[in-house]
Amino acid sequence: MNAPAPLTEALRASAAPLDSTVLVVPGMHCAGCMAKVERAFGGLPGVHAARVNLTARQVRVEHDPAVREPALVAALAEAGFASQPRGEELAPPPSAVKPLLAPLAVAGFACMNVMLLSVSIWSGADGSTKHLFHWLSAMIGVPAIVYAGMPFFTSAWAALRHWRTNMDVPISIGVVTATGLSLYETAMGGQHAWFDGTLMLLLFLLAGRVLDAMMRDRARAGVDALLRQAAPGAMVVGRTGAIEWVAARDLVPGMVMRVAAGERLAADGTIATGQSKFDQSLLTGESAPVMMRPGDPVHAGTLNLDAPVDVTVTAAGADTSLAEIARLMESAGQVRSRYVRIADRASRLYAPAVHTLAAVTLSGWLIAGLGLHQSLVIAIAVLIITCPCALGLAVPVAQVVASGALMRAGIMVKDGAALERLASIDRALLDKTGTLTLGRPLPDPASLAALGAEEAAVALALASHSRHPLSRALAEALGAAGYEAAVLTDVTEEPGRGVLATWQGQAVALRRPDSASGIATALVIGDRPVRLIAFADRLRPDAEQALAELKALGIEATILSGDNAGAVAEVSRATGLTAQAGASPVDKQAAIARLQAAGHKVLMAGDGLNDGPALAAANASIAPGSASDAGRQAADLVFLGDSLLALPRGVRAARRTMAVVKQNFVLAIGYNALAVPLAMAGYVTPLIAAIAMSTSSLIVIANSLRLYGAAR
Amino acid sequence: MNGLVVLIPVALGLGLLGLVTFFWALKRGQFEDLDGAAARILIDEEDDRPA
After folding, report:
1. B14-46 pLDDT per residue, tens
2. At residue A454, does pLDDT exceed 80?
3. Which residues of A touch B40 (CB under 8 A)?
4. Fewest beta carbons within 10 Å, which of A126, A389, A471, A704?
5. Which CATH number covers residue A572?
């Protein structure tokens, strides 16, 4: 609708087959962004239409086959949006909500119409009118119940076939028997039909399911939208010297990739020409960059810090060194797959109790001398009144409200079970690089403070011309400090050396220092003394407060890092936590298994690929948004932004959610406990059942809404 | 009673119409991007950029 007009016309005019590319644009969050993104493709030749999906943070571009992905990404970059082509493995998983929407709509429609008819019966319609209304209800109700009840029937049947039971079994039994009895009553011209109650039950239960699925879909879309860390492709040098962009999945051993400074490797390889420092922190947790020379092996996912290098691919895709970690992760998820969700645990106790009650009622009335038909009517009233209507809402509504609150606070929850597991945590293991620390080099505040205003302005201007990670960090820090860029002329970037320019007739440069310990950059202005700006990875802001809050929550935290002992000891001193250094992925997994064996519930916070197995093995896990692909996929929660306060905030919200869920159970079961004696005594009519069901559901929803501010 | 003969089919028909419309919207993918639909109304149509 809002696609620029020329595009739609061009689309109509063209008959050639179009390619469509989906780009993931994580930075898009408002109407202005949508317009900018869609218009960014407006001037691009060969592009016919662009349509943003804001929920999924994606844009679908229809274009001529000649237009390649990098051109599209570049067009977006010009508009100020980082983007990445969506790989096949990133295609959205089938939505859990969609198959439930149609049954929900049908149940809603049928419930309202049948309820209308029932209200007239309750207000006194009698004789042939009542009979007619019952038949009408049956005609609307039976097909609607069959259709809307399908999700429950199939799930219950699947469970029964394996000699198990779940929440859907009592629901299905209740629904089927109530429908059957109502049909019989209608045919016989009896007093009561229960179509309204049955449909209302299905409506409330479906609403609960939809909420649960919606939460999962939403969080997954958010996580998918974050940028992938492993480069999805590389510039490959052909035999003729021509450079061409090749997607990661098409890389084969023997190809030569040209990797610019600031790029991540798309595949494992050995360096062919050039030398550069590589940041391997995502892979090993090692914080210090490693110098690599021709012949040295480098791994996919590592970041080239310094200079462009040519890398000969030795392994790509599934063969990379990441495969080993992926295998570890697969086998590590056992604790979680064994976890039984609280709703299922409740139904294990609840379902037998309900069925026993109904059976007792039936046999009791039979023994008391009432006819089989009368006794059956009363027993089914018991089944309907106890059907876990509010129970079906008790968990999902609370979790949806809480995860919505967390999402507003920048914490994305993958599913409701994650909140349940997070609430029981009593031990936390924190990775160092990238989790406790920011995981990227930041300019040392002392050396920034030493710069004069003019020097800072020149440094900012120079840094803003480079994509080098150090330059970007410097530009960000100086920009945040309120400096304005000086006006430069003749700006050139020499890969591996730095940025050179002219400022007020003097040669200025931001370049690699001649000698420095650690990471640093040198600022040269004319013949003034050379300024050295040191860089270091720093603790996240609020790290101390976050750790203190965790402690107050009764969670003991320790550091579990793959970095060398020296670097870990420094952070350990700064935070006052005990630490284990030099831990391999297997060591981390073992450390968690030890704690779990001692009866602890472990929270793992980590970002790297090396944390992947530990994240999957822990009872609950959280990763920063800057984490590696594997880290984000394995983690239950992903937090955006730099603040580590997300950890205590998440735990607090999870605990409050569990408290509310338990209150909901008490409310729902308590309500049933009041209604069951009435039902067993035979006093419950469809009218009473309808009132009881909707009131208890409303109470449960209202109680859950108290979680709106849970993430504060 | 005569009124009912007209009114009940009318009521059911209107309800069915709503249901059919919902199914149509569902099929057309109108529930794919709820956040986007909410934001789209705020986009300025006028394009001040030279096309």
Report:
1. 888 988 998 898 888 887 777 788 888 887 766
2. yes
3. 1-2, 31, 34
4. A126
5. 3.40.50.1000
Question: Do A249 and A198 have their domain in common?
Answer: no
- A363 pLDDT band (50/70/90 cuts)? very high
> How many CB atoms within 10 Å of residue A29?
13
**Between residues B14 and A235, the one the model is more confident about:** B14
Q: What is the CA radius of gyration of chain A?
A: 31
Cα of A54 to nearest chain B Cα, Å: 5
Q: Is the CB of residue A333 less than 8 Å from the CB of residue A652?
A: no
Q: Would the pLDDT of A660 be above 90?
A: yes
Read off the CATH number of the domain in which A317 is found: 2.70.150.10
CB contact under 8 A, A113 and B22: no
**Are A192 and A208 in the same domain?**
yes
A34 interface with B at CB cutoff 8 Å: yes
A203 found inside a domain: yes
pLDDT at A670 exceeding the cut of 80: yes
User: Which CATH number characterizes residue A25's domain?
Assistant: 3.30.70.100
Chain B residue nearest residue A92, CA to CA: B32
Task: Provide the residue type at A233 as one letter.
Answer: G
Mean pLDDT of chain A, nearest integer: 81
Q: What is the ipTM of this complex?
A: 0.72
Positive or negative, the CA dihedral A174, A180, A181, A186 is positive
Range of the domain at A160: 98-222+339-398+656-709
Q: Note whether B42 contacts A: Cβ–Cβ < 8 A.
A: yes
Name the more confident of A435 and B4.
A435
Question: Are the CB atoms for A286 and A433 separated by under 8 Å?
Answer: yes
What is the rounded CA–CA span in Å between residue A627 and residue A623? Answer: 6
A563 catalytic? Reply is no
State the residue for tokens 């940025």. A499
A448 and A426 inside one domain: no
pTM reported for the whole predicted model: 0.72
Question: Could you give the dihedral angle defined by the CA atoms of residues A535, A538, A541 and A542, in that order, rounded to the nearest 10 degrees?
Answer: -160
Number of domains present in the structure of chain A: 5
Residue of B nearest to A130 (CA): B1
- Quote the distance between the C-alpha of residue A662 and its chain's center: 25
Q: Does residue A680 form part of some domain?
A: yes
8 A C-beta contact, residue A196 and residue A143: no
State the first-to-last Cα distance of chain A, in angstroms, to the nearest integer: 38
Helix (H, G, I), strand (E, B) or coil at A552: helix
Tell me if A405 is assigned to some domain.
Answer: no
Cβ contact, residue pair B47, A98, below 8 Å? no
Contact B26 A54 (CB under 8 A): no
Tell me the average pLDDT across A30-36. 81
